[in-house]
Amino acid sequence: MAESSLIRDHVAGLSAQLPEQLVEELADGLGQTHRRYLSQGLDSSAAAEAAIAEFGEPQVIVAAFIRASPARSTARRLLAAGPVASVCWAAALVTGHAWTWPVPAAAPFLLGAALLVVIGLLAAAIRGRRYGSVVRAGTAGCAGIAALDIAMLTAAALAAPAMTWPVILAMTASAARIIFTAGAIRPVLAG
């Protein structure tokens, strides 16, 4: 049986905005729904219209996938946890007199700039309107948070004169965030 041009156009609209794997699954479901309506006695055009109406317009489907994106939910969680980790690190750096640590003078500025970029990427993943850009921004934001946490852990381990409880608390917060990010990155990459 020939596929309806309405179905082909609908799938083409999805293909322009979603990954191939998702489009294949949606196309399969749309085809099954079309066949079900055909078996109920509708002609091909009416069956295609009913199947499309049941599935929704491409922009509605894409918006639903963006809202449910693992990249978006991971970015939300990382941004929500950010202030907690920041307060822990601020306490550790102030009580540990970090300005006396033997680190290059540019390091705090580079870490601060990197943090701003990562926050921007995570915000882009949350606010993005295109599926691909949400996934890319979320992936880069996850990698950036992990890199920043690793940099802070390394700096504290090498430069802190003593492992005080604020430093240990901050290191624990960063380690927990790294573990979360490592677990979340696979679904984020899978889209």
Mean pLDDT: 90
Into which percentage range does the β-strand content fall?
under 5%
Category by helix and strand content: mainly alpha
Spatial shape: rod-shaped
Which radius of gyration do the C-alpha atoms yield?
24 Å
Low-confidence stretches: none
Work out the helix count: 8
Main sheet specs: none
Total tally of structural domains: 2
State the end-to-end CA separation. 32 Å
- By DSSP, the count of extended strands is 0
Please bin the fraction of helical residues: over 70%
What is the string of helix and strand elements?
A: HHHHHHHH
Can you describe what's shown?
With 191 residues, the chain is mainly α. It folds into two domains: 5-65, no CATH class; 69-190, no CATH class. It contains eight helices and no strands. The protein has helices spanning 5-15, 20-39, 44-55, 58-67, 70-95, 107-127, 131-159, 165-190. Helix 5 packs antiparallel against helix 6 (107-127), helix 5 runs parallel beside helix 7 (131-159) and helix 5 (70-95) runs antiparallel to helix 8 (165-190). It is rod-shaped and about 80 Å long. The chain starts with a helix and ends with a helix. The mean pLDDT is 90.
Summed up:
With 191 residues, the protein is mainly α. It folds into two domains: 5-65, no CATH class; 69-190, no CATH class.
Secondary structure topology:
Elements: H1 5-15, H2 20-39, H3 44-55, H4 58-67, H5 70-95, H6 107-127, H7 131-159, H8 165-190
Helix pairs in contact: 1-2, 1-4, 2-3, 5-6, 5-7, 5-8, 6-7, 7-8
Considering the chains and any ligands shown, give keywords for the structure.
81% helix, mainly alpha
